[in-house]
Automatic annotation (TrEMBL):
It comes from Corallococcus coralloides (strain ATCC 25202 / DSM 2259 / NBRC 100086 / M2) (Myxococcus coralloides). The keyword Endoplasmic reticulum does not apply. The gene is aspA. Keywords: Lyase. Residues 1-10 have a biased composition (Basic and acidic residues). This is Aspartate ammonia-lyase. PANTHER family: ASPARTATE AMMONIA-LYASE. GO terms for molecular function: aspartate ammonia-lyase activity. Residues 1-31 are annotated as: Disordered. InterPro entries: Aspartate_Ammonia-Lyase, Fumarase/histidase_N, Fumarase_C_C, Fumarate_lyase_CS, Fumarate_lyase_fam, Fumarate_lyase_N, L-Aspartase-like. GO terms for cellular component: cytosol.
Length: 495
């Protein structure tokens, strides 16, 4: 018995896609016949998938980059088949034009199969084959479903299999999503760098293990955020290049059965031309058809980026905590009321939502890793869940970085007076004096300063260890925050 949710979806489709007075069309496959909405561009395979995979309630159209990538693959295959003489020019042209429609954003509402589906993506592949065929028929003046003129399998899917088109389309789509993320990541990196320049010269206390450490500048802290994001940008850019290796032409398991031996290279060349990206055919198509390593690489690198970004957001929340009982070193821009009961409370909601995205990305990476391990023999059947995880995580991360940049980083201000007071009374400056007065005296004076709240500088001078002039030089902001060590001649002046 069909899932009632799928039946409800199907009935709504019939009502929406069948104009008043129009009769549903009938299509037949090896399992029997079905009525389909007269206006639907999808066919019987999709109809069955709607019954079988009423899982998430989210159609594959929620990932437009996947649709674009698949349209590019079908277009490249049609051009290659025409070039090789295994598909007539008229049908190839109709397929080509239908793919252009999809790439332009039309017909996206016809890609209705659930993102969660069994069958290694066959339902997605057939969704494309059927929509392209019926759009081609429409362009040629034929009714939908008259597949003797343009068939989803014999013509649109000529020389192909789900097992080579799906991973290839996924890689093309991921290139697009990654490019969008890399653009946003670069903007976020620059926002932190700009904010660092704004904070130049503001000295603060650095911390290790949440305990006072040594002085630094707020500029150094924010430029550190920028540098770590720059490293992630470089890593993700390298991963994006690895997506250019495809197995199109492998057909079922990599042997190229049912395809012209020249098809793989012809399709590769057309796909490179269509996408404008470096596309290469894998050296071993059998290995490439079963290998999903690049998807693990994308996911793992994205997870690493998410974790580093989440750590930055943890720091921002700590530095902005308070305003009275926390660190209160920086002010995060107030974006919305923070409590339904505590008047005036404002929470760090932007860093928090980025944290939440990072948690989702980490969980998605676990899902993808398990799916990759579950592959068997000549194929991994779990490409759809990998696609779902990757496109979802890329979308979330791109949006999270945008809101962090626009709604948080750009509006951060420094609490200069509070930072100055902390530095003035900071016992940890004794670390800068240790090469000049020795570790044991420095430790003794640090304990005394903490116990009496006395000034470190006063204690050092009173002990006769350094003069006031020497202290002013050694404790200048430049020396405290730029890592100057013992210079030539310093040791001779040590007491």
């Amino acid at each position: 018995m069909a899932d009632p949710r799928a039946e409800e979806t199907f009935q709504k489709s019939i009502h929406t896609l069948t104009p008043d007075g129009a009769s549903p069309r009938t299509e037949t496959d090896g399992l029997g016949s079905r009525q389909l909405p007269a206006g639907a561009y999808w066919g019987i395979n999709v109809s069955r998938a709607l019954d079988n995979f009423a899982i998430s309630g989210r159609p594959i159209s929620v990932y437009p980059d996947l649709l674009f990538g698949y349209a590019c693959v079908k277009q490249a295959a049609a051009r290659a088949n025409a070039e090789l003489g295994v598909l007539d020019a008229t049908r190839a042209s109709l397929i080509d034009r239908a793919c252009e429609d999809i790439k332009a954003g039309r017909l996206h509402d016809q890609f209705v199969v659930d993102v969660m589906q069994g069958g290694a993506g066959t339902s997605t592949n057939m969704n494309f084959n059927e929509v392209i065929a019926n759009r081609g028929l429409e362009l040629a003046g034929h009714p939908k479903g008259h597949y003797q003129h343009l068939d989803p399998n014999d013509h649109v899917n000529r020389s192909q299999s789900t097992n080579d088109t799906y991973p290839t389309a996924l890689k093309v789509g991921l290139m697009l999503s990654l490019e969008r993320l890399l653009t946003e990541l670069l903007l976020l990196e620059q926002a932190f760098r700009d904010k660092g320049q704004e904070f130049a010269g503001i000295v603060k206390i650095g911390r290790t293990q949440l305990q006072d450490a040594v002085p630094m500048t707020l500029q150094q802290e924010f430029e550190g955020f920028a540098v770590t994001l720059s490293e992630e940008h470089a890593s993700l850019r390298d991963v994006a290049r690895h997506l250019g290796e495809i197995n199109l032409g492998a057909t079922a398991i990599g042997t190229g059965i049912a395809a012209d031996p020249r098809f793989a290279e012809a399709a590769r060349a057309h796909l490179a031309d269509i996408t404008g990206r470096p596309i290469v055919t894998a050296p071993d198509l059998i290995e490439a058809t079963t290998d999903v390593g690049v998807f693990m690489e994308v996911s793992g690198t994205l997870k690493r980026t998410a974790m580093k970004l989440s750590k930055i957001c943890n720091d921002l929340r700590l530095l902005g905590s308070g305003p009275q009982a926390g660190f209160n070193e920086i002010n995060l821009p107030p974006m919305q009321a923070g409590s339904s009961i505590m008047p005036g409370k404002v929470n760090p909601v932007i860093p928090e939502v980025v944290n939440e995205v990072a948690f989702v990305v980490a969980g998605g990476d676990v899902t993808l890793t398990m799916a990759a391990e579950a592959g068997q023999l000549q194929l991994n059947a779990f490409g759809p869940v990998m696609a779902h995880v990757l496109f979802e995580n890329l979308k979330y991360m791109t949006a999270a970085m945008a809101t962090l940049r626009v709604n948080c980083v750009r509006g951060i201000t420094a609490n200069k007076e509070r930072l100055a007071r902390q530095v003035e009374s900071f016992v940890g400056v004794i670390t800068a004096l240790m090469p000049h007065i020795g570790y044991a005296p420095a430790a003794r004076l640090a304990r005394e300063a903490l116990a009496t709240n006395a000034s470190i500088a006063d204690l050092v001078v009173s002990a006769g260890l350094l003069t006031r002039e020497q202290l002013d030089e050694l404790l200048s902001p430049e020396r405290l925050t730029r890592g100057h060590g013992v210079e030539a001649g310093d040791e001779e002046g040590m007491h």
